[in-house]
Each structure stands twice: as C-alpha cells, then as structure tokens.
C-alpha cells in the first residue's frame, strides 16, 4: 500500500493529486443519535437484532468472500460496524486494476480506490474516531465524477475525479472483514482482518450478510458467527473460557529483550494441552504446556532446548496462580508460590520476540511449524488438534494486563467461567453461542466415532452408531443409531420425556426435524421422535466425507434425574458421507459476452470459462463445442496446432493458455459449450462473441536512461501501445526505421544470447527480452543524446514514424593526481595514489574496474605489478595503485640527474582516454659503481686496444679501480703495450688499472683459431690512492663483470675431403651420388658446407645428370645437391674409370679424383655383429648390428628388405611391437626391430634373406644369451681426451678408451662398442 497520511482530516494520494478535488463538511440538517453500548439488548453471550438486519461477529481471522463479477459504471456501499480495534479491513471490491478498499487506520476511516484515474484516497475527519465500540454507519457513493464518503450521516467528504470514471470491473470479487490472502499489487504491507461486529452490509444493492452459509463457487464464509459476541465487550477482569479442541487467542507479542515475565491464573481438568507459545528470531521460542497434569516450560535457543517441569498438579479443576519468568541465565516457573528453576546456556545474543503470543492453542499455519519442536501437546504425527480446555484470567505480560479487548484473533472462546466443582463436569458451554456456530464454515477435525467430549461413568448410557448418507442425499436418524441403555420405568419417565438438544449443528448439512414448533425453535427432539422417524439428516452436497453434530440429553420430567439426564454432558454423533460422482459445473465468471477486436484473436482463460468438479481431477475434464459453429465468423484454435479449428479441448489446455478464439468475419456470433468428466456432462452455456472496430495509439514512450558501456531493459512502462484506450492482446510489432547512433537494440534469443534486431514485438518487451546496449567506446566531450525511430504494426495497421529517446550518461575521466616519482637511494620505489590517481564522472566505476593501460614502458627502468614486469599494453588498476602493488625499478643508477618516463591511457567500460605521460626523476648515488662493458670485436687472428668506451668502472667521487683477471680468454690473451707503469708482465697480464685503460695500453690478441667468440672474467675493485688514507666511512666497492669478445672470421682454409671411397654402380645402370660417396668439409667456422661448389671434367665411362631431368647433364653442382639426392650417375662404357672434380668455397680451390667401379648387381654385408640379450628380455636390432650395401639404384632405405626364412627357436622378432617376418633397412635405422627372448636356451639364431630389387643375399643373425651370473652391465674403464695433430693419424689404445665387465664376472665374448662419443682435440 502507499503511504498512509497522518495528521490531517482528509488527504489525497500523491500519485494523482491533480485528479481529485475534495471538500469536507459536516451535515447540519441531519443528525444521528449514536447508539451506546448500554442501549443494546443482551441475550446470554450473543447480541441479537431482528432477522432483517443480521449482526455478524468477526474474530480477527474471519471474512466473507463473494465470488461475483461486478461490472458497472457506479458504486455504492453501506455498512454498519462496531469495534475497539484501531486497524482492520472492512471492505474490498477487487479487480485487476479497479479496486475500492475501506479500512481502519489509527481509529480513522481510510478509503483507497482506483476508479480509472489512478489511486485516490479519502480520509475521514481526524477527530472522528470509530474504534470506540459503538455502532457507526459508513456510506460510500461513486457516481460519474463524484466520490462521497459519509460517516454516521453527519460527516461527509467528497471529491471530484478528473475525466470521470470508466466502467468499473471487479473481477476478483467482493470481500468483507478480510481478503483471504488475495495476491494483487495494491494489497501490500500489513493489512489485518477486522475484529468486531457488522450488520447491514449492502454493496450495489446486494445484501451480503443476509446468510452466513457458504455456497461452493459463489460464497465463502470463514469463522463468522451470527450475532454480536459478548467477548468484544468483556472487561479486563473477566475470565476467558476455552471450550473446544480448536480454541485459542492471539495477543500482541510478549516483548522480551533478553528477559520477560508472564503471570496468570488457570482452572482446568485437561491432562495435556498447550497453554502459551511465543516465537523468537532464528527459530527461538518460549512455550508452556500441560503434560500429564503438570506444567512444563520450554526455551529453545540456537538448536538447543531447555525444559523445566513443576511438581504441582494443575489439572484438578481448581484455580492456580502461575508465574513464568525468563532471563538470560535462568528459567523460573512458579505454581501457587511453589517454584522451580533451570539454568540456561549462555548465548551471545539476547532473546528477541517475533510474532504474536498464542494462548490456549495455535492456528493451522503455526501448528505445522510447532510440530517440528517435539512438544508433547503438539505431536508431530497427529492430525487432531488438542487445545487447552478450561478457564484463564488475570493475564499479565511484563506487568502489563492482557484482556479480550487486546486480542488480535480468537476462536471458540467465551466470556466468564461457571466451574464450581468437579461434579459440574469442567465447564458450562454457552448453548446459544454453539447453536449459532451452525452458520460457520470451517471443517474441524472429527472426533473418533462414539467417543464423548467428556468421558465419565455415564458413557454407558448411550451407544452411538455412525449414520451413513450419500453425498448430496438424506437419511433418517433411527433408534439403531442412538441406543439408550436404561430402563425408563425405573425412572418413571416416558420416551417423549427424553429430550435431545442440539448443541452444534452439522457443518456440511442440516437436521430436518418434524417436531413441534417449540422443539424446532429450540433445536431439540425426543426419543419418541427418533423412534417415529421424525429426524432426518440432509447433506449439502459438498465433497467432505465426514460430518458431525453435538447434543446433550436431558429430561423434562419434574422428578429428580441422574446427572447424565440433566443436559450437562455433550455428545458427538458422527456421520459418514458416501461420495458420488457429481457432474461438472460450467459457468462464465465474466459474463456471457466475449469482446475482442475485429480480425484479431483472444485467449480463453479460466476467468472466462470456469469448470468446477470437486470429485474429478481437472486433467480429466474436457470441453466440447455444440451446435453448428459459424466458422465464417471465427473459430477456436489450439496453439499446439495453429490455424486449424477445434471442436473440443481439455481443461488443461485452457489453463495452460493454449485456447484462442480467432475472429474472421461477422461481428456477432456465439459458442455453445459443455463440459464432461468422461461419464457425466455439465450444463450448457452460451458464450456470445462480439467483434468491435479498433484503433491504436502509443500510450507509453518515456525513453530510457543508460550509462555508457552498460545496457538497460526497455519495459512495458517505457514503450507500449493501447488499442481503443485499453490494454490488449493483439500482436504488436515495432519496426525500427532508423537505428540508434551510439548503441544497439538487442533481443535475447532462446539460448540466452543477445543479438541486434531491427524489429521486435510487444510480447518480447513484456518478457524482458528487449534492451538498449551502449556500444560507443570513445570519449564523448558533449552530453549528446541518442534515439531510434520506429513504426508500430498491429494486424497490418501501421503508425507514422515515432522517436524513442535514449539518454546516455557519458563516462568522463579526471586525473586528480600525476606527481613525478623520485628515485634517490632505494633501487625500487612504490607508485601509490599520492603519485597517480584517476576518477570517473557520469558513470560510477569501482577502483578494481578503473584500469591504466601502458602505452610506452619506461626505458631506464622497469614498471612492475608485484614482481611481474609490465610491458606495452599491460594493464593495472587504480586498486593496485591504492594497495601499493605498482612499483618502479631502475636498471642502473645514473651518473647524473636524469629522468625516465612512461605513457599510459585510462580504460573503463571499454572506454579509453587520451595518452598521459608519467615522469620518474632519477638521482645518482655517489658511491654507486658506474660500469661500461660494451664488449669487443676482433678479426680472426687480430688484436684490439681496449678503451674507456668499451670497458671502464668509475664512481661519482672518482675512485680508482684495479681489475683482476679471474678467468683468462680461451682463444686469445691480454697484454700490455708500453707497460712501464703497469703492475704485470707484458703478455698474459692478470691485473691492470683504470690508468692502463685510459692510457690505451691494454690489448686483446686473438690466437687465429676458428672460433666465433671468446670471453674473460674480471673483478673490478676500488683501491686507495697512493699517500691517501681511506676514511672510516669510505666504502670499499667491488663488482664482477664478464667481457664478451666477438670474433670476425676470415676465409683462410681450403675445403678438405672427408669421404673418399670408390663409387660402385651396376653395369649400364645408374645410381644416386650422395654424401655417403663423396663429401668435403670447409674448416672455416662461418662457412656452410652445403655451399661448396663442385665442377667436373669429362667422365670416360658415363655422365652426371640431374635426377629430376636425366636428359640434362650436370657440370657444376653444390654439396646441398648431393645431400638432397639431385645428382645421378649414369654408366656408359668401361667398367673402371676416374674423373677429376674441382671443389671451391669461393676463395680457395682443391681437386680430387672420383673412381667409378662397374659390376653386376650385388648386395654386400656391411655389418653383422649379432645380438647379446639378457635371459627372458628384449634386445633391439639396429643398423649398428646389421646392415648391407649395394651398387643398385635405391632411393630410400625402405627398398632394402629383410625376410626371415628360419625363425629363432628361443625367441621372436617383433617389428613395431608386433610379430613380423619382414622388415626394412629403414626399420633397423629407426630401432623398430626387437628380438624378444623366451627364457630358454643359451644361444639362438635366425636366418634372413636380404632383397634389393631382384638381388638376394642370405644372412644368419646369431643371438648370445647372457646367463644370470653374467648379467652385469658393461663398464667404461678408460675414457680420456685424444690429442691429434692436424692432418696426422694417431693410435687409439687401451690407455685412452677401454670397456669391460664388472670385476668377478666372465663373458662368453668380448664387449663391442656399438655407439660412443669420441672427443678429439686437434
């Protein structure tokens, strides 16, 4: 609800202040004498008026709901009420948008209504309080453009509605006293039900309280009783009588800020019942119950419960004074000055109450919550309600009195107690009160058959047997149902003198009594009436399967009767209802006229067509169309099969919104409908259809506001269309004729992805699927607005071009601080928000999302984020700067004051600023060593003076440095020239000073070796000047440096032949000439051997030709051609010959002879070492063990094939982990061939046939199996460097290289070196 006005006699809602003009005045020509409490007649516990103006009692949870569809252009209401409560709902007429609410607010009347022009408020005069427990008359009239509120025919408030009222439509019905949990937008906040009395409630000439019976589907009466109950007038000192299993009262919460005190007196005979219950926050509670006749208190806090029981019996029908005290440390329970105490566990937070205080019992909702607490009086599994029965008075909470006038809700209680002794059987039920309860709706729990409310010795007097009746039927109540176990002659009475008086009438039916008028008025019958069949039960047709009524038995004889014939003992008679299948009931809640727009379709909903069948599942109900349906006018359509007319549909389809009426032609038509449950059919209804012309206009075009880089939904309140001034269901499409300039209109697809669109529908808007996305990622210097233009298309009708404005809140950057960073003594300096701080305007951006993008990193140092070096396009945030995570570290200390800079831009929300420059001021340190080490460049075999620009160490205070050689050059030496003042020898110096470098006396000399670089390692340290004493604070400085020397090679070596062998070829055949046949090497380190150029002279017995084109002879080729297989020799002539080759590296030349030998095709065994295998293990067979050569023209090693002709006996040959009988030379070279020993035998052999083209060679491969005692790895005994003089041979002996077995083992054959690295020094 909107804000409630205070401090004025009338007010107008600020939503529609201009639309309502109100004047208030007092009627002076008419007066009304207010009725006082004393002037009202009182009859027992109920106040009664003539039948024409029925009074009704509302108990705080009561209400009357009238399911009628009101559709009118005027409104009138009259009602009378009396109450002592300052808040409560009196009346509600509820529609979708239209509504009228009358409620009590702080003792004043408050009217809120929406009559077509927005919410409007009328408030009675502030000095007129209507919570004074006297009768007040309220009249409300809404006619045309005038609203009038009249109170007691004396005070009047009027107002004017600008534009007048439209037709009011209250589709949700009319409510009196409460709203039954109706969920509509205008009912928000706490709106309590009315508590008090009402009469003469007339709405639009419809009397609402003429009957207090419920009618399914039309009227619901909940907890409302006839007459004005005395409990509303009870004084503070009067006792409260709880008389049923459903009794309870709720009071305002028992406020406990850590502690509380509750005091009262009670009188009961109940052995088990709940006395009070108070909830707290987070599941905490305080409860008091009777268990086995004694009191038990509970305190539940933080999932632990403390229990405390008294030792004093209270279920003895005597008055007892109770005191319950609750503190942070203790729980005290006192009964008649006898107390017990329990300690409570310490908790961090005090107990804080929440919700009302329940006394005597619980309502249904609270009962389900309390069941989980395992209280004995509220069992978890029982469905029966066990409330306190007895009397309670003098209730005080924290010394504050609580009486019935303070109650929020009450149920089944009365004022005053008449309990005098145990013989009085606990309590005297107010008969008039219970008789009138026959008008009340609720269905209480039914007691078990044949059991009495109060059991005593008289229980054998009556034997009750259940009455069975069909649903909606009737049955006689006969003597077999109520058997009287007594002898009447002994008592001297007749059957007509035994009187059964009805205490509570049946809930779901009534008793029809064919008795005397006096008996019928008193709701009584005799035993003789029962025997003569004059008592009949008539069921009301509801779906309840049980009913009951209560009665007492007495005698009208003047003789003294036993206690059980004095009418004090109530009995319960149970009625069993046998269900029957009722036909469905079909109605049109909104009337029989369906209005829709021409050529459109309208959804049919349960609000238009309502089917009710209490005994049939709604999924089993269906509806069918009867008669000749006029398909030219329109047809019914199921959205699951659009475009096709249907003659029937299920109730499930109707509820799911799948059924539409589609209009085609005629303006007027009708639909005959009938429902079925599969067995029975309902009544037939006629739904008239009227199509009306229409036009539309854009009702809302407010535009949206969005922050740059963000998105905003376009909702119905921003953009919507009305047809004929009302909301509609026609398909509405928006066609964008001009796209927005700085963003996109996007729609959310079913996958959840947003995509740009040029058209969209109202349906997509209503479902939150249309948005404006700001995509402009540049800075906007001016406040430019955006917009898009569109047209509306509804059923082919297209509007003119309209504009939808978009206000963009542009992002702007402000650099608050950019202060240079000073680097003085420390090597690393933190860059914090005192140096660099940026903020945004227009759009709020968190520090974590405000980024700096590094455009140009510093040149003289490093910018770091933590320990990570930031490079170009690296990102860091303002939050990183605030947390001191960004720092600058110089590469070296400068010799003089200098500056370093880096440039950056600010980035947020994909928007990037211009570039900014940040400055770092670098200060030199006087004692910092300034090193110069740029390396040297020397020609091969040359020498180079080392100058100050290449190697030097110095400080700002010009200290002298001495250099000590820690590692000499490997390919040259340092020497001093003109060294008369130096400290070392002329050659191979180990020390020198700055003076030697400045005097240009230090020189590096290369040894002319074929190397590309050299280096030496120095330690530079300060020395004291001669005759100068070092101060105590003078620091000794030292540093290590490595000097790199680049050697510029020169071509001074001629090519050397490294492969010199006879070239074999098949007679009159051809073969590739490769590096395996002919190869040269150029010792110059920087020369690529592949670039050696070969030139040949005439060949006596053949030609060299190009492999790719054998017709083209080759006279020159490079060594790369030999490696790539591009040179082919073709034989022609003699079997043996030689020819001359000239080889050059471009500077030096050499020549040699290539001998060619010609023969028939052959295969020769180049290598067959056999195998050594450990027992039961694998040994790899490689080209080092087995290989062949051939003079035939083969291009790949795959052309050399090996086939096993005799397998091994004690093992298998595997190729690529699989057993195979063939493999190639390529497999051997790749290590794909393995011999696997099977663990038997000490020797094995397998025979092979080698095939190259059509040439074959037989080969045997021997396998030596090593015994377990021999299975020790071979050890390298000697492996020393071999020194060889260039161009000369040297013998490799045991002193240089030797392998052998582990000491103490023997081998059957000597070890063989199959692969090793030999290091030769020339």
UniProtKB/TrEMBL annotation:
Pfam families: Cadherin_3, Laminin_G_2
CDD domains named in the record: LamG
Keywords, in A-Z order: Glycoprotein, Repeat, Signal
Residue ranges of the region described as Disordered: 26-46
Domain Laminin G: 53-228, 238-417
Recorded superkingdom: Eukaryota
Gene3D superfamilies given in the database record: 2.60.120.200
CSPG repeat positions: 458-554, 583-678, 695-793, 812-907, 927-1021, 1054-1146, 1162-1253
Gene Ontology biological-process annotations: anatomical structure morphogenesis
InterPro entries assigned: ConA-like_dom_sf, CSPG_rpt, FRAS1_ECM, Laminin_G
Record protein name field: Chondroitin sulfate proteoglycan 4
Organism: Rousettus aegyptiacus (Egyptian fruit bat)
